[in-house]
Design goal:
Strand content: 5-15%
Radius of gyration: 32 Å
Number of strands: 10
Structural class: alpha+beta
Oligomer: single chain
Low-confidence stretches: none
Strand order of the largest sheet: 3-4-6-5
Helix content: 40-55%
Order of helices and strands: HHHHHHHHEEHHEEEEHHEEHEHE
Length: about 375
């Protein structure tokens, strides 16, 4: 199909409009690439799929697809061996896969005959076990919980005890008559991963310890008292063990998905197909569209056809200022039936000739891309090559 014709007829605006209905990044990418097809059988199948989805959405809720904005990057990271996904991304992946299974279950439960949707959702793989593993190990706000493994629970329990012991020792410096007078502030803080107290610079030697730097003014020193060095060392070692165990848990959860790459690809493909279909169906609803009949004899019959880009409900999907547009433009009938192969349109300037011609051309492109057209039932279009 000639790209110049697509540009002249502003098919790209229709692509922008339908893409705005996408629920997932992969669906948006697929919709950005839709083009008119020149195979009559594929066009007919695409129109029937849009019709079926529009009928489904008339009686059923929208597919509950939930995907993170960085879904495509997330899926790419699964291809990096030994790379563990962060907790937030694991939760997002679990939510995404869960939403696909929920959408598939909704189609199965729906009353009515939806053969294409049933066929698509029948390819969904179940990730129940992997999703449950993520939910058990990670809680909001994106943290690996203590009971993610017995080892992690033990490490964190020891960490809490050691930190309590350390804080108690440091607080004794804050309360002590012999030491409190040397402090800039009565607080315990952290410096370079070590717990320290704030000592006045002029009393540098009054509290023996390791200096971990000073304030910007130089008036305050961050001192780790010698009495706490051993406990601090134990805490640092435990924190390293904690980080290693958390990484092991995250890697195991990530590998659970990574090892099912083909199933993941299949389910993602299902989500993309559902997203594309629901976007096409919602565009149809926005412009009160119908599926045209595909003619085998070159017949072109548009009944009460409206130019979609002059419709406020469509233009609002890609433009912010649509106040000057009518809710619905003036419809036009365009009929060119065999044996006639040409149509002469005459009339005064601003009489609607160009809009009529562009309406016919754009609606033909839309139909061949599997999109409904804003025209009355009974409208017929041939396949243009």
């Amino acid at each position: 199909m000639n790209s110049g014709a697509r540009r002249a007829l502003e098919f790209d605006r229709i692509v922008d409009a339908v893409r705005s209905f996408a629920l997932t990044p992969t669906g948006a990418s697929a919709l950005a690439g839709i083009r008119p097809d020149t195979d009559a059988r594929r066009v007919q199948e695409a129109l029937q799929a849009t019709t079926e989805t529009a009928r489904y959405l008339t009686d059923q809720p929208l597919f509950p697809l939930r995907a993170p904005d960085d879904l495509e990057e997330l899926l790419a990271l699964l291809g990096v061996i030994a790379r563990a996904l962060e907790p937030a991304r694991l939760l997002a992946l679990a939510t995404f896969l869960e939403s696909i299974e929920t959408a598939a279950a909704a189609v199965r439960r729906a009353r009515g005959n939806y053969p294409r949707l049933t066929s698509i959702t029948g390819r969904v793989a179940s990730f129940t076990e992997e999703i449950a593993g993520v939910r058990r190990a990670i809680a909001e706000p994106n943290e690996v919980v203590d009971h993610a493994s017995p080892k992690l629970a033990g490490i964190r329990d020891r960490l809490r005890r050691q930190r309590g012991r350390l804080r108690g020792t440091l607080e004794s410096y804050l309360r002590g008559k012999d030491t409190g007078k040397y402090l800039q502030e009565q607080v315990v803080t952290e410096r370079n991963g070590r717990y320290v107290i704030l000592v006045k610079a002029e009393h540098r030697g009054s509290i023996p310890g390791i200096v971990h730097g000073s304030s910007a003014s130089g008036a305050t020193l961050f001192v780790e008292p010698l009495a706490t060095v051993e406990v601090n060392n134990e805490i640092v070692a435990l924190e390293e063990q904690e980080a290693e165990e958390v990484h092991r848990i995250l890697l195991a959860l990530t590998d659970g998905f990574r090892e099912r790459a083909s199933d993941l690809q299949r389910s993602t493909g299902v989500a993309t197909e559902l997203d594309v279909l629901q976007a096409k169906a919602r565009l149809s609803q926005a412009m009160d569209g119908t599926a045209p009949t595909i003619a085998q004899d070159g017949r072109l019959v548009l009944i009460k056809a409206r130019h979609p880009l002059l419709m406020r409900t469509v233009a609002a999907r890609y433009a912010s200022d649509v106040q000057d547009l009518p809710a619905s433009p003036v419809p036009v009938d365009i009929l060119m039936e065999p044996p006639h192969t040409a149509l002469l349109i005459t009339g005064p300037n601003t009489g609607g000739k160009t809009v009529a011609i562009k309406t016919a051309g754009l609606l033909a492109l839309m139909a061949q891309a599997g999109l409904h057209i804003p025209a009355e039932p009974g409208s017929t279009l041939p396949i243009f090559r």
